[in-house]
Amino acid sequence: MNILIADSGSTKTEWAFSDGLKPIELRKGGGMNPYFSTSEVLENEIISQVKNHNFIPEKIFFYGAGCSSEKQISLVKNAFTTVFPHAEVTVDHDLLAAARALCGRSEGIACILGTGSNACHFDGNVIISQRPALGYILGDEGAGSQIGKALIKAYLYDELPEQISKAIVAKFGITKDSVLEAVYKKEFPNRYLASFSIFVGENLDKPEMRDLVRTELNSFADRHLMRFENAQGLPVHFTGSVASHYHEILSEVLKERGMHLGKILSSPLQGLINYHLPQA
Fold this sequence. Notes:
Layout (H helix, E strand, L loop, with lengths): L2 E6 L3 E7 L4 E8 L8 H11 L9 E6 L5 H14 L4 E6 H10 L4 E6 L3 E6 L4 E4 L4 H4 L5 H13 L5 H11 L3 H9 L4 H7 L1 H6 L4 H17 L11 E5 L1 H5 L1 H10 L3 E6 L3 H8 L4
Helix pairs in contact: 1-2, 3-13, 5-8, 5-10, 10-12
């Protein structure tokens, strides 16, 4: 039986094409967040990223950012059933993907720290509590979008050392007007903001950049992790590029709060393969 497993964030989608016994191919494509896409856009992405590779799935497990309400789940599910009318389609949110990939069938706290952020308490079977996901404008503490936003704000407010400001101009060629247009007028402003977090990672030897990351991770820990019951007694797992890139600072932040850092996966896909295809 052909099985398709996908984990999709706002920036990218990772796919595992399987014959039911083992993954036969892994691929990457653009993000498929229903909050930023129409049904037509989603269908075109599915055709481009899956159908054009001559793979006809019979079962589809799609986990995606933004797939947390019935409306958004239906939007994604309808797109898949339009392209693959005979497939059995299951759509769920990316936080459950993180929980299953990180915790397997054990209890723990599962967190996403990528373009966006989120966290939940998983009992090994279901999510029993989770923090509100408010997106890049109101939430996403500790995420790439917020690290990038903090950098750009500091640059535009002239709060950075001259050497760092010059490096930002040399790398990105930005102006106040270009930033405002990208954030307020163009598509995918969260991706745009997150793209600047790469610069922070490349300059982590500078105290200002390290402090910026620590401030964001402190905010994530205090606003999310510390709100879970028994947070100090459970392993705290992470998936996402921010967690991978800044794992040393993340470990320090958790240790200061008496928490135990568990797994860090750059992507949940391999964990999802292990969950859905345990014999692979």
